[in-house]
Amino acid sequence: MKKLFILLGLTLLLGAGANATFAYSTEGAMYYNEGLDYYSRGEYGKAIDSFKQAVAKDPDFVDAYYNMGALFEYLKSYQSAISCYSKINQLDPNDKETVLKLAELYYKLNNYERALFYITKINEKDDLYSKAKNLKNQIVVASQKAAAKNALANVNTANDAYRSVVDKFSGPTGLAMDSRGILYVASYTDNSIYKIMPNGQTQLYSKAPQLGGPIGLAFDSMDNLYVANYAKNNILKINKAGQVYTFMTKITNPYYLIIKGNYMYITEQGNNTVIKYKLY
């Protein structure tokens, strides 16, 4: 069992003999004790250097690795701390305190897969099982949130990859496409209809004085365009030559249009009705 002391919230091992399993050289112990002295004076960089010298002399110097890892952790150099604790784990796989440390650090780095790898090494018979269980629950929740966030990001990325935008419209509403693949856009605010060519170029199609708040658009089989003229309470017809006619009156606030076969369907918002009209 490691003997620890705590100072300023930082946990370090007390000097020689903390791990009787390992025999350390005199020179390695000298550097180790030097590191403890530097630590006590708050010279953490020099303390780390001394612990590095200790493990250079004794590659199995577990206490030096542990103290060095604790200092790196205190300084929030988590990856360096992981390197130290991983070395201890190689030397002593049954040291569950170090296993828990590795799980905690990987959790802090949002590497939930590695955190779970280590936390599952602590079982119900271990003294640290209660802490490990709580940490495991936190890791699982964080992992699920990260997975959901990544899934949403992937969807958004996929959507962006297929998205293109054509702007310069004022209050765009209805859409319809003719037999040539040209897209028409009703612009409610400026009483206009635009067309978007297959190459993405936008052109003004009609700004006839009859247009008043156009919304719904639909083409018949002969490429005549019908317009739900919301503000003027009528349906307009624009033939292939661009000539505009009043096609239907006595309709209150027409909104959407659909043409199926010989029939036109119109939502009449002012009367809360749907009108079916035979074209031919």
Which helices and strands occur, and which strands form pairs?
Elements: E1 4-7, E2 10-13, H1 26-40, H2 44-57, H3 62-74, H4 78-91, H5 96-108, H6 112-119, H7 129-161, E3 172-177, E4 183-187, E5 192-196, E6 202-206, E7 214-219, E8 225-229, E9 234-238, E10 244-248, E11 254-260, E12 263-268, E13 273-278
Antiparallel strand pairs: 1-2, 3-4, 4-5, 5-6, 7-8, 8-9, 9-10, 11-12, 12-13
Weakly predicted, low-confidence segments: 1-21
Largest sheet: 4 strands, antiparallel
Mean pLDDT: 88
Class derived from helix and strand content: alpha+beta
N-end to C-end Cα span = 94 Å
Evaluate the radius of gyration: 37 Å
Number of domains: 2
Per CATH, the superfamily of the largest domain is Tetratricopeptide repeat domain
* H/E series: EEHHHHHHHEEEEEEEEEEE
Strand order, biggest sheet?
3-4-5-6
The general outline is rod-shaped
CATH class of the largest domain: Mainly Alpha
Number of strands: 13
CATH fold call of the largest domain: Serine Threonine Protein Phosphatase 5, Tetratricopeptide repeat
Percent range of helical residues: 25-40%
SS field, number of helical segments? 7
- The CATH architecture of the largest domain would be Alpha Horseshoe
Residue fraction in strands:
15-25%
